[in-house]
Every structure is written in C-alpha cells, then in structure tokens.
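Q: Second attempt. The first request was missing the SMILES, so the protein and adenosine-5'-triphosphate are both included now.
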Amino acid sequence: MSSSKLSSSSYSSVYRSTPTSDNSTRLSAYGSRKYCRRTSSRASERSKSSFSSLPTRRPKTSASACVGGRDNHSFVVAMIEGRGVATEVGMCFIDLRTSECILSQIADSQTYVKTLHKLNLYNPVEIILSVTAIEPSKSKLCKILEDNMPMASIIPIGRKYFNDAIEEDSASLILGITSKFYCLAATGAILKYIESTQNIFFTNHSIKFKYQGCEGTMMIDCVTARNLELISNINNPRSNHSLYGVLNNTRTPMGARLLRTNTLQPLSDVTTINMRLDAVEELIRHEETFFAIQTALKPFQDIDHLITALIQVPKKPSVKHAEQSINNVIILKHTLKLINLLKESFTGVQNSLLDAIYSLLNDLRLEALEERINDVINEDITYVKSPLALRNQRCYAVRAGFNGLLDVARQTYKETVDDLNEMIDQYREQYQIPIKTQFSSTAGFYLSINIEQLEDKQLPLIFINVKKKRKTLTFTTLEVMKKNTKISDSLTEVYLMSDKTIEDLISEIRNDISVLYKASESIAMLDMLTSFAHQCTVSNYVRPEFTDTLAIKAGRNPMRESLYVDTFVPNDTYASSATNFQLITGPNMSGKSTYLRQIALMSIMSQIGSYVPAEYASFRIVDQLFTRICNDDNIESNASTFVVEMRETAYILQNVTDDSLVIIDELGRGTSTHDGLGITYAICEELLKTKAFIFFATHFHELTRSLTVYPNVVNLHLEVEIEEEDSRVAMKYLYRVKDGRNDEEHYGLKFGQIIGLPENVIRKATELKELIDSNKEKSTSNKIIQRRKTLLQLTQHLLQIRRSSNLDKEELRKYLKMVQEEFITKMEALF
Ligand SMILES: Nc1ncnc2c1ncn2[C@@H]1O[C@H](COP(=O)(O)OP(=O)(O)OP(=O)(O)O)[C@@H](O)[C@H]1O
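A: Got both inputs this time. The predicted holo structure:
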C-alpha cells in the first residue's frame, strides 16, 4: 500500500482533492483527528500513471454516487480468491462514508455460500475483481457474483494491484492476519482503486481497520493456529502430528479439505454443531452402515477438481485439451456410478443431516446427467488407473455412429497396436529371450527384460536405448518407435474426432453443474462425519455438550494421547463465569503447556462436531480463541521474545470478548523480573475485566497471592513429588492438576540439581537466592516501619487540627483535604 499504512488504533481522514460539489467534502466520521488535503497535481499524476491499465468501463452505480451519503449503500469491496481447488476468498470492504475497512478471509465451499452471505451483509455497490477472474473466461466466483449480486457493478482491475505489501511497523491487530494473504491483497487493491478513481488520498495511520472472520464460526488467528499445531507440526512440517493429522481419517480429497477448513474455522452455531454430533452418533450406532459408507467413499476422485476442469473453456482447441476432456467425462461417469453405490450404503440410519446428504445425492438431475452421458459414452467405459487401459478407454469412449471417420481412426489404432504386439512376439521367438511389453504415457510402448533371464547372453544389437533400472533392462527398437508414432497419430485423430461430441456433452453438463457442486459438498460432509465416527471408535471419545460452563472430566490432550496412549494422565477442567480466570503454576516439565493446549484443542474439536477425548465434556461456545504460547524459535518475525510477547498480548487485549477462550503460557519472560511481573499483573487485571475463560500458566508465584483479591481467580498447580536423600534429589512428575498453589516455589534449584548442574553452581545459586530473600524481607520490614510512621504523622495532624480553634469552616476543609492527599500519596508509595 503506497500511501496507506495499516493501523488498528487510528482513524481515517479522507479528503477529495479535485473540485466536486464541495471541494473538501469529508468522507470520514473520524476525520477530525488529522487530515491531509492533497492540493498538488501529484495525486492525479500518480493515479494516472499507476492505473493506466484500469478499465474505462463505468460501473452501473459508481462509488462516487454514494460518496457524501447520497446513497444508502456506501460499501465497495475488492475480492480475490486463492488458486487451486480449495476455495479461499479474501475480501476488503471499505465504507466510503466512514473509511472503515473490514477485512475478511473465508475458506468457502464450491458454491461460495459464506462469501455471498458476507457480501449480502454489506451489500456493496461495486465489486472489484482481478482482471484474470474475468478474462479470458469468467471464473466460477465471477459467474456466481453476477448471478447473485445483480445490483453491484463488477469492476476488473489489473492483477498486479492485488498485492499484500504491508509496511513493517504494522500494528498488533495485523499480527493475527499477516498470513491472510488474500484479504491483505484485496486491501491493497481497494485502496489503490479508490485513490485512483475517486482521487481520494488516505494519510498514513489514518484508516480504521477491522478484521472480521466468517459469521457463525470461531475466529482463530494464524498465530494461534500455528502455536496449537492445528494443521502442521511446528518442529517438523512434514509430520502429520497435528490436530488435523489426528482427526483426519477421511477417504476423499473433498472430505480432507473440509476437515482442514473446519479445523481452522470451527462453527459457533450450537444447532449446526449438534446436528453434526447427532449424525456422528448415528454412524457410531450403526456399525454396518458406517463401514459400508467408508468403503463406498474410498474410490472417489477429487470432484471439485473435476468440476473446475469441466467449466474451463480453452482459448484454442488442442489435442491435449480434447484428450483431457474425454478423461473428465470418463471420471464424471465413474463418479456418478460411485454416487449410486454410496446411496445404497445409507441403510438403517435415521438422522436429519444424513437424510439431507442422501437427498442431495438422490437428486434427479444426477440421474438425468448419467443418462445423457450414457447416450454418448459406451456403457462399459469406466475409469481405470493403469495408463494403457485408460488410453484404451479414451479411445473407445464415444459410441459408434456419432462420426463415421472416428470409427475408421479407431480401426487404424487397433490394427497398429495388434501389429506391434505381433512384432514383439516375433522378437521373442527369433532371439529366444522372454521380452516383456511395457507402457508409459510419455514413452508409449517399450520393452524390458529381467537381467537374470538373459543368462549371460548379450542383448542383440537390434535393441537400442538400453537402460538399466535395478535388475531390469529397458530398451526399444526402431520399429517399435515407428509403431508408437503411428499409434500416437491415430489416437490424435480419434481425440480430435471425438472432441465435438464430447464438447457438446460437456456444455450440456455445465448447465447442471450446480448439482455436482452440491453432490461434492455432501460427499465431503459425509466423509468428515465418518472420519469423526472412526476416530471416536478407535480412541474412546465422548460426545460433548454445550452449556454456560466448561466442565471436562478426565480430559486428555488429543495430540499427546496419540503418542503416549497408555501413559497419558487425564485431568479435569472446570470454569464458569464465577471462576473464569485460572492461574496454573508448576515446575518445568510438569505438564502445564500440555494441559492448556488440551483445553483449546478440545474446544476446537467440539465446535467442529467431533467427539472429544474425555469421560464427560461440556463446553461454552467460544467465539474467538487466543493463545500466547512461547515459541523461542520465532525466527520469521525477527523480533525479540519480549516484542513478540507484547505484540501477541496487545492483540489479545484489543480483541478479547466475553465469549472468548484465552490461553496464555507464560508472560513477562523476555524482560527483567520486576518489569515482567508488573506487566503480567497489569495484563491479568485487564483480562479480568472480561468474562472470557482465561487459562494462564506462570512461573511468577507472586501472582497466585496478589490476584486472589479477585473472587473469580482460581489457583491450580501441577503436582510433583520431591524426594531428597542425603544430597540427592529426585522429582517425580504426576501430571495431575490440583487445586490451589504449590507450596514449593523453588523448583528451579531442585531441577538444576536433578539435571546435574555442578554442585558449586547449585551452592552459589542457593546462597544468592537466600540473600535476595533476606533483602526482600528487610525492605518489606522497612516499609512496614515507614507505614507506621506515616500513620503516626496523620494522627498528629488530626490532633493539631482539633486543638486549633481559630480555623474557619472553609480553611478547615482545605487543610483536611491537603492532609488527606499527602497521606494517600505517601501510603501508596509504600505498597
Ligand atoms: N498429562 C500428562 N500425562 C503424561 N505425560 C505428560 C502429561 N502432561 C505432560 N506430559 C509430559 O511432560 C512433558 C512436559 O510437558 P509440558 O511441556 O506440558 O510441561 P510444562 O510444565 O509446560 O514445562 P515448561 O514449564 O518447561 O514449559 C511433555 O512432553 C509430556 O511428555
């Protein structure tokens, strides 16, 4: 963003520079703070040069029409979607009257339901899209926008304006969304668009930015997703030891994608969550149906991928595209057959969500689609994995009779393949070696032999391009190569002649593409629910409830449990609005982090619709999940531990709500102990103003005493047993969460002894600790003496006042006030 900096705290001031009805029409409600009027011609020069590629097409309702409040709709939005099959849409809405920017990034389904819902909330007059979403062919998103947002004008602008260049000192609010590339890219584009077309200039630190997740979902910022290892493992990105990895028992790519999206964006609507849980329960109860569905799901190809391929129209026809189109139709035919088999597996289940899935799969339009495909494609054609078999399927896909020349080309193909096989038989006979025929989609036919079968004989010279692959020799002959070329030529003819018929069929399929989207979404949902049911049966999970309290009996950390099945120690958790702040202490390695993460992970699981690892679990719906967990290896941010800590905490304090869940695993470590303690205490007090459930692990034992003045603070600790014999110390970790604070506060020294720090170091450390303790005591007793003195002084003052009868009422009042203020200041300094 060239002239705009993202700022969470400052407000906008947006001014027109070119004369309009009012030269200085202020667009912002917050503009009085600071503003900038661009009077020079630089503004228009810059916008001209940077937007030379903007379209000249005028919108139906220009943004300028609503500027100044002449129209109720004052929103303009820029949108961009991610590449690939997974649908990730980034949006930035700007309210032209207040200059408030609302950023949103949504992981959506193929029908863009959530994106449309968001758009309907703001009802923008203009939708800015990248020109690549419109030309050469309209993207799925563009078509859906045209159909569903008829009142909005779609404005294409160059793809290059969608970039996420954010200046370095971006505020803490941005911390949570730095990896949300698409919404930041949309922000960059919309600001440049408005600057250029409206000739409006946004000053630095002047726009109010707000990030809004998707309605009806729990907001999880990217730092939290990373800290909790929701999708990938921090230490080993290749390992699938993450929450997603643990829960993923899906059988289809669509199911896996849906699970991934849900893990990052769980639901917050209890009715929908309960519907999912009912379905999972039904699947667990009907084991046979569950296994039948799981088996029926396995052979599905990626339907979303298929749909994307089906709706793409090539710029120019080509053999490659013709070949791919036949493939797509074969896969679609196969998919429709699999959907029928899947429907048959729905026996005996009675559940509203499963019924809804069934009826989407039972759509008559799917049957009609199948019939239409069968009119064109041979009945026995099906999808096969082997490249040679699939090539044959493609060749014979279109029924005979559509094109007379097609049958001739197929005959040529068949004869050439037969000739080639005959020729290879002759090689075997002539050279008396057991040659095998091989095929690869790139090289075509070639030959091979196991080296041992050559029996020390030399390979005859007719065989060329000899390569050795372990114990096998691969080779070919000139004749084989010639035949390959001939086969390839006849196949090209077959593909081109099939193309017209296939393209006609595909354009008919496109008319009913929505039914395929829905089928794909239902299969994804069914797959995810079956995956939850599977996980539940193999891991002994329980169905969660949703109430006002967080109550977990014998909860386990789903990720740790998967590694330490037998040894994991379960723990209870209880939090309500009367005990919403829980301080957790315990020595290093006692299990604090594991316990904190367990609470967050189980909350996420419950809101996806999964069962949870516990004996009983009740959750309060979480609208936002925040974590502050130490990751000393935060190299990316290039910031010190303390800076990262403070930035993350500021983000939490700015965004926490009464329904949030906050997990803080140590704070105030990156600075001096006193500063750290002070800051941590102040942060705790700030958090205590909310009703959010807060779980706070700390090594500052002072907090366990000072914060107990708040009735809603609960102290918990992780139990350990210390055995001391002679000079040997042993610590036994029990991993049990107990009420209250722990009596032993100097675990650090004990820990040092256990892990073998030299004896003299331990001795010195103990001496120093005792010295600091005694100094502390001294300064405490000094303060007590001082406080007494101040009290005595106050008594003397008051006695003096009583004795002096010459003061009038007003003078007495003033004097008393002065004494009072002085007393308060002195006493405050002594606490
Ligand atoms: N409930 C449990 N049951 C069994 N093992 C556990 C349990 N909780 C933790 N552990 C084990 O203890 C190890 C340390 O746990 P964790 O990192 O949570 O401790 P910690 O108190 O946060 O440590 P530190 O204060 O040093 O960060 C884990 O790697 C795990 O193997």
